[in-house]
Amino acid sequence: MKLKLHWQIVIAMALGIVAGIVFQLIYHGEPSGWVYNLVVSLGTIFIRLLRMVIVPLIVTSIVSGVASVGEGRSIGRLGLKTFSYYFVSTLLAVLIGMVVTNVMQPGVGANIPGNGHFDPANLKTPASPGEILVNMIPLNPLEAAVNGHMLGIIFFAIFMGIAITKLKPDSQAFLKQTFGSLFEMMMKITDYVIKVAPIGIFGLITQTVSSAGLDLFKTVSLYIFTIVAGFTIHMFIVLPLIFYVTTRINPVLHYKAMTSAMITAFSTCSSNATLPVTMNDVETKAGVSNTISSFVLPMGATVNMNGTALYECAGVIFISQVLGLDLTLMQQFLIVLTALLSAVGAAGIPAAGVVVIFIVTQAIGFRDADVGVIIGTMLAVDRPIDMYRTMINIFSDSVGAVIVAKSEGETNLYPGLRSR
Ligand code: ASP
């Protein structure tokens, strides 16, 4: 078992693809049987293990991270930098989504049955950003923790961290020590979970490959191609550019550092479930301090979703193209704004992006009857898109963590990777 973890994961993915094809051939797209169920449960177990560590991990990590911000750093400044990054990267993602769908026009003439006729005059303005802010505040922090309301948990944990820095020295030392040790313990547990990642990823990929029907993919191939093109531009041109311009570090180092997290995102389709791996990569491989990684990453997993934002925007414009609408620039900007907000509101779980598209279409005034079949079709082919989207979501968070770390004067970045 001397093979590096990310190589183990790559091999597990390859084996999963092969096994998936075999099951697909044997069972003609509806796989079953005990061997198959066993393989599928490997994936399920892995996801459950990841989800098991999320709440205690982010609480201890944020509390101990924020509590130590007090030592010579300003929380306000960190927050400002972090949110500026979230905003800029999400906005760029949405604009890319808008441009690619306008250039490639994947929905024009697409043959999806059941289109209603829709009057563009009925387009409405989106719900207010204030609502998202209000909902961030949990009525009861324990309830937020039990139900996994990420923003509520994060909000309260940041508060605890800030409060600790204002206590008497002995209480402060005690709480810092306690949360620090609990956090170390959670990192240890995370480590164990990550060690079994190859087995879980094998199960997840097998399941995905074996149950994907291929015919539908052909019908909407231009749609898939458009979204994937947008994702690729964002992931391999825009984000590395931002990264290089702000840090002067070779972006290749960062892709290398994030391999395990990217593959985990790719196979779990969940930013939340990937969070422990993302934090692990950002801290141990990219060399970012826990203070900054625990400030930027957990919040980023819910708030900063570049892939999802791009998808919302491109998806809604695609739907309008299928409906035969010719949106004005103003109407498109309305969509851009809604997409931006909806990506903030989307949960870091599989297929959240498609669910949210319903909200976006509602918000701008499409009726369910008009868009139901189209969104259903998008849902049917969503898994591979979700894989890529989630990977971009967490990759962007990690880029933000390094940018903030660098700007805060951290110097020990990419310790193991640079010397090689
Ligand atoms: N699956 C994505 C994530 O967890 C959310 C989405 O569906 O867009 O990041």
Structure description:
This protein has 420 residues and is mainly alpha-helical. The chain has one domain (5-407): Proton glutamate symport protein (Orthogonal Bundle), CATH 1.10.3860. Helices cover 79% and strands 0% of the residues. Helix 10 runs parallel beside helix 19. The mean pLDDT is 84. The protein contains 20 helices and no strands. Bound molecules: aspartic acid.
SSE arrangement:
Elements: H1 5-27, H2 34-69, H3 75-104, H4 129-136, H5 141-147, H6 150-165, H7 169-195, H8 197-211, H9 215-219, H10 221-247, H11 251-257, H12 259-268, H13 271-285, H14 290-303, H15 306-322, H16 329-345, H17 352-363, H18 368-380, H19 382-407, H20 415-419
Provide a compact summary of the structure:
By secondary structure, the chain is an all-alpha fold. The protein has helices at 5-27, 34-69, 75-104, 129-136, 141-147, 150-165, 169-195, 197-211, 215-219, 221-247, 251-257, 259-268, 271-285, 290-303, 306-322, 329-345, 352-363, 368-380, 382-407, 415-419.
